[in-house]
Amino acid sequence: MKESRNAVEKSVGRSATWPVMLGTMLTVSASLISHASAESGDADRLLKAMTDYVASQKTISVTYDSDIEVITSHLQKIQFTSSGQVQLSRPDKLRATRTGGYRDVEIVFDGKLVTINDKDAKHFVQIDAEGTADHLIDVLREGHGVVAPGADLLLPHAFDVMTADVIEGDVIGKGVIDGVECDHLAFRNVDTDWQIWIESGARPIPRKYVITSKGVAEAPQYTLRIKEWKTDVPADAFVFKPDPSATKIAESDLSDIDEVPQGTTKPGAH
Q: Is pLDDT larger for residue 254 or for residue 9?
């Protein structure tokens, strides 16, 4: 399970592990791939336009659905689905929620203090983390093993992070997500393939992206679908409001908050 998550995480730098719907697998003809390969410069251009547009938004509020696949010790592919919300106010405020069948988790950052709230257990942890939302992602991932869903898509340096290990990028064509026409891009790294659908027109926001872990048996996928995109955030969105019955605990006592339940896979199974 840990190897699956690590492979997914590596695919786009620090993007999404919470943050994932498995699309229908299509066989793309050789002629289409040949045409798309000639458009690799367009793929970079469209991706850069998306990241620049997103970075220009001072406040963002999105809701999402996510799916993550794991491979069991019996080589069975299992998918776990969650929904949530990410709210950002540049440069130093972030709130993210994820609710699934196994965990209901909230992260609140006010520029000085980050709270990790396990709503199921009614426990929360608070950590000093003064700085920007960008810095917070590093603190959570590297120091505490916690990753916000697709957060890198919302931050100013997203293009550099996403393309750091890319060896090939193509414009596949058009797609429709929730009735909205999108540009469909596909990129390749050594260990992963990843795709992104970007809304066409004057508002190039990410609508969906899929990461395929080629280095893991059965090639499990991670998918994020952005449902609602707004640029207004309530003033109190970044104020932590604990349940009256919730208890503050030490970081070392925080239980597992992964969206994949423990015991789904066995070490060395993939």
A: 254
